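User: Fold this; tokens only.

Assistant: Input:
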Amino acid sequence: MGTLRDILDAAARGVFPPADGRTTVLPQPCPRDAGVLSFTAHSVVFTDEDPEWVHATLAAADCDALAASMSPRFLTALLDRTGRVAETVDQLWAGSPLPGPPSLALAEIEDPEHPRVVSSRRRRDEVRVWAAQGGVIVLGRGVAGRLEVAVEVEEDVRHRGLGRALVGAARHLGGGEPVWAQISPGNARSTRAFQAAGYLPVGAEALLTLRRTPDVPAAGAPAGDGGCLRS
């Protein structure tokens, strides 16, 4: 099945792991990122923990085997064992690359103080930011080096289609790579924007992050580690 990046690249092309009800356990792509991916009838747990412990804990989850990897009992056990934290289980979407420049007028900027940029730099490398009138696009390399997008629309220009235009523009900015998005399941507004911009649902993801302490810099990696290398 290859590396985690191999699995993600294939999924972005619409080629998914076999729907065999199994769970694949892979090592973390870097110290920063651990977590669980759930596809149709197949899960991938990426962690440096013992695979035998992972499978035994899944078996003890006391729920449908197809749901075990995303069950509260398993995720809580994995968080406790790794000492990590998680915000939510996200929808995972991918947008295929589009040629040429976007039609939306954009200017690349340096804005380290913007809340969306600060959040992205905690979990992504090589973060770049573009501004449009009323919003921003942030692209950076996240899990296994995939290209991830986040957008922000100013309150006074919402409900006018700008969010859809921003996430659509991101597909032009990826240099020929697919663009990935993590969306909270309850965020119907974002879900509709990404769907309207041509992104497709791939699966679900629970990302386990390091606790923020004085020894963990803003990039989210242990001190002295330059974040996550592309793989």
